[in-house]
Amino acid sequence: MAYRIDLKQTMGESLRRIALEQIQDALADADNRDLDAAVHQVRMHCKKLRGLLRLVRPSFDQFAQENADFRDTARLLACSRDAAVRLETFDALIADRELEPADYQPLRQLLERQRDEALHVQFATRALLDQAAARLRAARQRVEHWQLNAEGFDAVHGGLTRTYRRARSGMSVALEEPSVETLHEWRKWVKYHWYHSRLLRPLWRRHMDHRRAAARDLGECLGQDRDLALLAEHLISLSEAESYELLLKHIDRRRGQLRRKSRRLGKLLFEEKPAVFVGRLQQRWERAG
Fold first, then answer.
1. Average pLDDT over residues 43-51
2. 209: how many CB neighbours lie within 10 A of its CB?
3. Shared domain check, 143 and 212
4. Are residues 130 and 232 in the same domain?
């Protein structure tokens, strides 16, 4: 089934079903021979699991333990992914017509070598994927026994409110002081809100479809902004940094465009106060029941 609650199930049943589906998909993806794709997909499923847990956080006594476990599973694979993201970010940037790809071929070859070294010969990454799979299999056994101490909208009210409030306050900080750190923090809570919009889609399909599309776009803007900032930092650290002046200026321009779009999307998503937003969803839940 899709990554969403089922209003015909109790919230506890939906929690366990969705978690088991995500774990099963992550285990299947861990076997992918394309190691970069395997790493990306397993980490994605861990993030979706953490988004699910945050929705029921106040109602789930094992939240801290389980959230930390999925976080640590994803972190096993973080290093090899960072180098791959640098290369992907560079390729997307260099595709712009303002830049001549041939001028940067040596740089691309360097980034590609660094990506391959981070994946370090397939054995190291395969071993990490095997470790992640073992942790996921252990988690699968625990999921069968997960229980919530509330049901209905009460089970999600606190987690939904907390995530929306953090995304809203993160926006205020990031727009006032748009550093790599503040943008990253805002993006983290935007992503959780995106997951919650997907999970709660059955409550209000048209509205949540618009909201999750906007949250997805905002998360991508903030992610691209951060990826570009990290690529710029990496370029500056290289001995040939002076020859990348044009590329660094292009990165700055692109980041400016992304920030303007992020501001617009953020205002659209988080204009309402948390109590108003959550209250409207509670009314939809009560009508559905």
1. 98
2. 13
3. no
4. no
